[in-house]
Design goal:
Length: 227
Amino acid sequence: MCPESPKTTFKRFMIMVVFAAAFAYIESAVVVYLRVIFYPDGFAFPLPNLIDFENAEKYLLLTEIGREAATLVLILTACILFGRNRRQRFAYFLAIFAVWDIFYYLWLKVILDWPVSIMDWDILFLIPTIWASAVLYPVIISVIMLAFAGLILHRDAIGKPINVTPLDWLIFLVASVVIVVSFCTPGRHIADADYKAYFYWPIFAFGAATAVATFTKCLLKANCCPD
């Protein structure tokens, strides 16, 4: 398959940004409604334990988990449509997820003037369990993902793709699991007064730094060994 021109790649990328930003507005609008339903007295940590919800609220909680699953399916579908090969599809998955996440918080700031601070805490995800942290940390991951995606797509557009070995993929997987664990650990303690103590930022930093270092190695290897 012939590589598309950098100009075409840029146009496709910008269309993706519009798609992800619009989808992020839908997500933020849903969260506005959910906060009215679940937190009528205000959304602030520590939060009520989700397992203590009444039956009607548990039904809505299950609906929200289903919506999150549908969100992942939508992102996967979009990256298949945007990408022309496996590398590009992976890059577009990273990019769509990143832009969606960043704009999600931007839209909430516009609608609710929240978060007040980048260190405000949020429930990030509910699959397979509750993820929670200060807003700063998922935004950091989104910026990293967006940088990875841009570099992958750029290299594909100029005909010098980044090649990743099975060992590199394994390291990326381990780094991703470490990051997810760093989010899920405090998620189990959102009702505790000392909820912040359960986010172990060195574990998060280790996962993020490992992913960045491995990607940098792959990028430098591609630069040293052009096709």
